[in-house]
Specification:
21% of the residues lie in helices and 38% in strands. The chain is built from 3 helices and 9 strands; from the N terminus they run E-H-E-E-E-E-H-E-H-E-E-E.
Length: 134
């Protein structure tokens, strides 16, 4: 079911500093910041040859990553995202099985403009897991 690792997401306390570190010190290509108000985040992608790092910074009153940053003031790893060929089929399989709870069985449009779902971290060894339509 799962294919490529699309990205690993980090919540960062200072987006400009993080961008500068990845771009200027570590020499990676980074995208321009993009606000996704419906997800409560400003996002930057660090483009790597084999995957991406997604830098997340909370925006808005009800950002879902704000509590994470409150608990982890220096930032931290937030989720991993795997690509799936067919997200509807993936959700159907997971709902039928029941091992991994799907937090939003109706896919949302994610940072790449593609449908995504999130799986409960407690069901997957403590790791919040995103599935993205490839
Ligand atoms: Co993500």
């Amino acid at each position: 079911m799962i294919g490529r690792l699309n990205h690993v997401a980090m919540v960062v306390p200072d987006l400009e500093r993080a961008v500068s570190r990845y771009r200027d010190l570590l020499g990676a290509t980074v995208t321009a910041p993009e606000d996704l108000p419906e997800h409560g985040v400003r996002v930057v992608f660090v483009r790597l040859p084999n995957t991406n790092v997604e830098l997340l910074f909370p925006i808005g009153e009800k950002s879902p990553v704000a509590p994470f940053l409150a608990k982890n003031p220096s930032g931290g790893m937030h989720h991993v995202c795997y690509e799936v060929e067919d997200i509807e089929a993936a959700v159907a399989t997971l709902l039928a099985d029941g091992t991994l709870r799907v937090l939003n069985p109706k896919p949302k449009i994610g940072a790449h403009g593609k449908p995504v779902v999130f799986l409960h971290p407690k069901d997957n060894d403590g790791v919040l897991t995103e599935l993205e339509q490839a």
